[in-house]
Amino acid sequence: METLPEPSAPTVVAVVRSTRTRPLLPRQLLSDAVARAGLWERLAARTAGGPGEPAVLLTPGASSYGDATTAVSAPLVEHLVDLLYERGYRNVAVGGARCGPDTWLAGTGDAHHRLGYRGRTAQGNAYRLVDLAQDVVPVDFPAASTLHGSGMSRRWLEADFRINIAKNSTHPEYGYALCLANLLGVLPHADKHHHYRARRDAAEVVAALLATCPPDFHVVDAVVSSHGCAGSHVGRPLETGTVVAAPDGVLADLAGALLMGVDPVSSPLTARIAQLSGVPADYRVDGDLTPYQGWRNPPRLLTEAVRRLHPDGRAHRLFSIAAWRVDPGAATVTDTALARLSRGLTALIRGADENPVALAALCTTVGAAATTSATVQAWRNGYGKERIRRREVSLGVDPHTYALADFDRIDDVLRPVEGIVDALPADAWRMRWQHVGHAILFGCERTVRAPYAEFVRRVEICRSISYMTDYLGGRVHVVSRDAHGRPTRQIERNIYLAQPNYLAFYGGPPIDVCKLESIAYEERSQRISWRTVHSPNRSADYDDGSVTYSPADDGRATRIAIRVRQKFTLPLTWQVFRPETRPAVRDPLVQDSYRRFFTRTLDNFEAHYEGRPYRIGRRWDERDDAWASELPTQRFTDAVHLVRGAARQALAAGRLHGSPGPDGYRHVAPGDAPPGFQPFEELRETLRPAFSGFGRGLWEAVARDRSPRQPS
User: Fold this and answer.
1) Quick one: angle between helices 314-322 and 356-383, nearest 10?
2) What is the pairing mode between strands 55-62 and 161-171?
3) Do residues 373 and 668 make contact, with C-beta atoms less than 8 angstroms apart?
4) Phi and psi at residue 698, in whole multiples of 5°?
5) Tens digits of per-residue pLDDT, 580-609?
6) Are 440 and 433 in contact, with CB atoms under 8 Å apart?
7) Distance CA 644, CA 647 (A)
8) Cis peptide preceding 291, ω within 30 of 0
């Protein structure tokens, strides 16, 4: 008789709380929580049989120079060090997960000591203090990962067991910030916002870390929590007497959110990571999840306003930095204007927790900044595309989810659609389109005066989707290749500007879709066909189609044919308008937008063949790293210093020149006239490129928009 395997034990989320009837010290809370969550069993299993003494790395979250009440308690971390020593684990290191705007601060003394870490516990047990931003080595992040090509600290990678310790606090954007948000701090770049929020999606960054080199255990320090509008930025302590422990970070965050009395998936960060990384199938909660008494979460108006700030915009960056309260005894802000803004904003945040007028002022201020940021971004969609930065994203789907048969069935789905498109009447632009329900069937073609053999060599069919107009970036994962090494099956994620571009003014999101693609190379044609399987931002129900190259004029020219079936999500304001009930208004708009998009797309194919630039936006490079270190407040500070210097020089100079004459007048010789005032000359030369560049760019954008294109 075959013996059935024993079922694995469920993952335990331990919630240990101090109550009036059962008061517990922080050390007892911690000891009980980690034991009930299975820390010691997991640590023993992970390090069993390993050579030498196992290395344990603790990563408590904190800003090096920020408000100490927003950081993980150093005595609690040292209690965990003592517990490790009691069980024979003596190779322990503490590497702080820095989450604050440290790059803008000039500190005094050692950051670890300011936070209470001395390298030795009260019981005399020694531990090492390490910097996770140093000794960075390459990591084999998969090609489908947004962190592909990035590195991590050697200390993090070589640790046998990693324990992630987060402060229990609220967050003005996510609603709450616990273990998952804390993981952004263990990444090596000092400018977390620039590299892990603006360039990349924060949830995808954390999911990539969890998939490749994750923590082994998670602890939430809720002995004394920080709540209110922005507890992670401006400390507002509340004794909650709780420690949460779990082997899984998503589960720890879910339990922590319930203790705050909020829906766990109300945080876009937690919801997205849970979707990407998943939740253990079998788990149980060991403890009481009754919400904390006296707890205050950020108001919904505030979190929604902050979420409307564009991640790679200056307003979002400025808020994320200025909203942190800096301990005056620990550091100073190097930017004078930023320091004043930070003092005012943090005072407003602190007052908003108690004063309804201050709360209204805070929400109004952030809401106005969000509206301005969205308007600027929408304007760039149509008139400043060269200033938009391309996105660095993950693949968006698990490539192992799909079998080869899923790719082979794409043509079976598309062939009937293409037959309908080809039967539609063509307009003067050789374009065919028709509404079918809420979807649009569309087709267009163009004959390019380029030899077919040379065209297919230069303009690779497998990259056809990236030649589309308004392409912002994406990622490709090749599944199979032919005997010549050419991709035959691949998965691709594409991001485009909102279409039509003017929908961005109504809140239309970028088009973000993940597709399965099948590519065929035949003697007389090449063809790529695709089927949408996922839209991370729900901007499209489907965006299916094909591109075909075929020879024309006996191979002396190339015919490009595009056929698509699309159904995109309209902004809420347009959904209320219900354009499907007004075809007389809808049809001209649809026809014009499709004509513009695919005319420019076909232009891109020709431009790529000829080697002319056609991409919108710009890549992230070292100049962007330098650009990110500058804020509008820094320019304002520089302008103030320049004006002050000019004023001092003007006051120091004599008001009148020349010498008085016997007639009572002051006679000025040519040599007495002062030259151009140097500070004003410098200011004029500094501002000249900005004004001339703006005017030239606006004129070129209007000229491009007004220039008609003739059908080929």
Assistant:
1) 150
2) parallel
3) no
4) -65, -40
5) 777 887 888 888 899 999 999 999 999 999
6) yes
7) 5
8) no
